[in-house]
Write a structure and sequence with these properties.
about 600 residues, mainly beta, 3-stranded antiparallel β-sheet, 2 helices
């Protein structure tokens, strides 16, 4: 405020001085004579006027350039063509500390920077260029500002180098604006106990140790550089009590027994040793060794079966024996076979067999019992179904339902059984092959139906009879019984006809029926028509024809017409033509007027 008041006083003083100088100049300088030219009419002759064309300016004044128009100029004094006072952009006052900023023109000492106006200040005090207000500065210091260009950042914090990027640093700290992103390779937390190991960063206390990693601890207090939790081998509570924390295989004291033969089973007096899941070398957890000097045997095992001769088959016998993991050979818990002689290794199986004299593996007769080896004794069989023990290819009864006794491949029904081998013997079958009408004669086997053929034309007649033959009908018989003329060899069948020519004139008339004949129809019977005979009883007449009476015999008749049955010739007194206009005059046949009328019609 003092600076502002001082600037106002200076301006008033400058204005007063200006008016005094102007008055003196006006009093001392003669006005322009009527003969001197004054183009702009400002009262100053053009020769003395510094701006002859501008009535507002006529004299030279000194001033400082005031580019920002804040009333205070800057730079050296310069002459300016002016009027009553310096023009806009010039000032008699100098010392503008910000010539390009109209809001600032004066310097003030003892200020503290606050460019972001957040109340926190930068380093000070400083001398700053200000205007009517202290914008960007404060007269009293605030909290230290780490970034005076951003109001959201003010307080400073420390960061430490974080080489392993685990979020915890170590070493010389650097200053950092709180809230800003951390620079790469720095952390906001100090105290990394392993700066180059990302998995470890914090000193952690422990009360128990597991050095050999067997899961059992010993009491031990200390601290170890670790991560989020204690590393393996360190704990805050006891896990058992390791009797040897240098050997992971041993962690507990147990009662053990001397194991001289090293089979895992001991004997003798018990002793205490530090051990784990297994006993230490030379000792065992169990004291049941029944053979301390033999590593293959250590425990008593019961058995229920014996194999004294070593043939693999046992006999019942109960007892116990010093053994290893399993019973020794010759002893068993469960039976293997049933040895019929446990003193002879060559025999062990009791066989119930029958004599097999023909060697076909099927026996017969009374059952016999032998103690022998594992194979059936030679000459014996376990079955007694042999129906013929003298023939090796026959050993069983097979049922049949059809017989072919005469060997002609045709069977006759017959049910029974026959001693056979893999299949029924020839002449026996379970399915029919034909139906043999005489199984004692191989030349005949099939029943056929036949008729007597008296005339030998191949077709019989009369009642049918059944004949046992070789499948064909023998003479004088026929397989057909349809002969319509049993005594006439030329005729044997009924043939149909549709037309007859009884008068043998070569013209037929329709008539349907059948006639007993041979290979073809006899005359007068036909299957196809020849003409249409109008009188089959008269060979001279065979056709129907339209005729007209011809009374004058001129070859042209007249009505009335008739349709008689005639032969090849037209009978006398008749004509095929019927247009005679005068049948009483042979010279007149046609009417000229009718001909003229016909011509006119045709024209």
């Amino acid at each position: 405020m003092e600076q502002t008041a001082h600037m106002g006083t200076n301006r008033q003083t400058w204005l007063a001085l200006t008016l005094t100088v102007v008055g003196l100049l006006a009093g001392c300088s003669p006005g322009a004579s009527p003969t001197e030219e004054d183009a702009d009419g400002d009262g100053v002759a053009d020769a003395a006027d510094c701006a002859p064309g501008d009535a507002n300016r006529w004299r030279i004044l000194e001033g400082h350039a005031d580019d920002d128009r804040d009333g205070v100029g800057a730079g050296a004094l310069r002459e300016v063509c002016a009027g009553e006072q310096l023009p806009e952009g010039w000032s008699q006052q100098s010392g503008d500390c910000a010539p390009g900023d109209a809001t600032r023109w004066r310097e003030q000492a003892g200020l503290y920077p606050d460019q972001d106006n957040d109340g926190a200040t930068g380093e000070g005090p400083v001398t700053a260029c200000v205007g009517d207000t202290l914008e960007g500065y404060r007269e009293q210091p605030g909290a230290p500002d780490c970034d005076d260009n951003a109001p959201r950042f003010a307080a400073s914090t420390q960061l430490w180098p974080d080489a392993d990027f685990d979020g915890i640093g170590n070493g010389e700290p650097i200053s950092h604006c709180a809230g800003k992103d951390l620079p790469r390779g720095y952390a906001a937390v100090d105290g990394d106990c392993a700066p180059d190991d990302r998995a470890r960063s914090t000193w952690r206390d422990y009360t128990h140790r597991d050095a050999d990693g067997d899961g059992f601890t010993v009491p031990e207090e200390g601290r170890v550089c670790s991560g989020m939790t204690l590393p393996a081998g360190y704990a805050l509570e006891a896990r058992g009590l390791d009797c040897d924390d240098t050997n992971a295989a041993w962690w507990q004291k147990r009662t053990v027994y001397a194991d001289v033969d090293g089979d895992g089973f001991g004997s003798g007096d018990p002793v205490m040793r530090c051990t784990g899941r297994t006993a230490p070398p030379g000792y065992a957890l169990d004291s049941v060794d029944c053979a301390p000097e033999d590593a293959t045997r250590w425990q008593w095992r019961s058995y229920a079966h014996r194999d004294s001769d070593g043939d693999g088959d046992t006999v019942p016998e109960q007892g116990v024996t010093c053994s290893g993991a399993a019973l020794p050979p010759g002893y068993a818990q469960w039976p293997t076979g049933h040895d019929c002689n446990d003193r002879d290794a060559t025999v062990m199986v009791t066989w119930h067999v029958y004599s097999d004299d023909d060697g076909d593996r099927f026996g017969a007769g009374t059952r016999q019992t032998f103690c022998a080896g594992r194979q059936i004794p030679v000459g014996y069989s376990v079955v007694n179904t042999d129906c013929d023990d003298t023939a090796p290819l026959l050993w069983r009864l097979l049922a049949y339902s059809h017989r072919d006794a005469d060997g002609d491949s045709f069977t006759a029904p017959e049910v029974g059984t026959v001693c056979s081998g893999m299949a029924l013997p020839p002449g026996h079958a379970t399915t029919p092959r034909g139906n043999d009408c005489d199984d004692a004669d191989p030349s005949i086997h099939t029943t056929v139906q036949a008729w007597t053929d008296a005339d030998g034309d191949g077709v019989g007649a009369g009642d049918a009879v059944a004949l046992c033959t070789d499948g064909t009908v023998p003479a004088p018989w026929s397989a057909r019984g349809t002969d319509c003329a049993a005594e006439d060899a030329a005729r044997w069948r009924q043939a149909a006809y549709a037309h007859v020519d009884r008068d043998a004139d070569g013209h037929t008339h329709p008539e349907a029926g059948t006639v007993c004949t041979g290979a073809s129809l006899p005359e007068p019977y036909f299957t196809q028509a020849t003409g249409n005979d109008c009188d089959d009883s008269d060979a001279a007449r065979y056709r129907w024809t339209v005729l007209y009476p011809d009374m004058d015999g001129d070859g042209v008749g007249t009505s009335p017409r008739t349709i008689p049955c005639i032969g090849a010739q037209t009978p006398l007194g008749f004509s095929l033509k019927g247009y005679d206009v005068d049948d009483s005059d042979a010279s007149i046949q046609e009417d000229p007027e009718d001909d003229l009328m016909l011509e006119l019609i045709l024209d």
